[in-house]
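Most newcomers find our protein records easier to grasp once they have seen one. A learned vocabulary of local backbone shapes supplies the integers on the structure line. Here is such a record, shown just as it appears in the course material:
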Amino acid sequence: MNRAFFPVVKSLLVAVLAFCSVAYAAEEAKAVPVKADPAKGEALYTNGDPARNITACISCHGAAGASTITSNPKLGGQHAAYIHKQLSNFQGSDRSNPIMSPMAKLLTNDEMKNIAAYLDAQPAKPGAAKDAATLELGKKIYRAGIAEKSVPACAGCHSPNGAGIPNQFPRIGGQHQDYTVSQLINFRTGARKNGPMMTTISKRMSDDEMKAVADYIAGLK
């Protein structure tokens, strides 16, 4: 065999190894997740980004996520994973809203994580039940479900005090009654498609049952 052949093979081998090292390093860099930055999340939540037509979240959801508009959810203290999921869903077809869908589509994945991290770190604003006439019904549904309709207890997923379970189920304690009812109805009608379990449950509930449990939830702390 020609001796000149070996230097060529050696050079090729070195080149291949170098290429593989660069490719591996690039993959390693991609694999390292970027840590969410609550400070950046607060800036975007509070000020928006006029240059990109991103409206400040605070205008609808209140300072630190403590919304005072009953049709808009309180977001302070909500689990970061849940907020990030909802913003991602607004970017697609699983959850459609004339205001939130266009806004979410302007955000990058990192920006959504930053906003979620900021809101997660804020205190949850308490609420109060308002309808004494339905308090016992709401309490029964939340704690024990509706056996005859195969509706499970809300507390099983959202915890006895409504704090939810991080990375699994959202905080709902203290949430506005109007907002909770509207979401239960959206699940029932199919307007909201990002919670198969809630779709099944809501279809088994009457309007009065939804209102009763929503009012009870508002008073949870």
Remarks:
- The domain at 38-120 is CATH 1.10.760.10 (Cytochrome Bc1 Complex; Chain D, domain 2).
- Residues 12-18 have pLDDT under 50 and may be disordered.
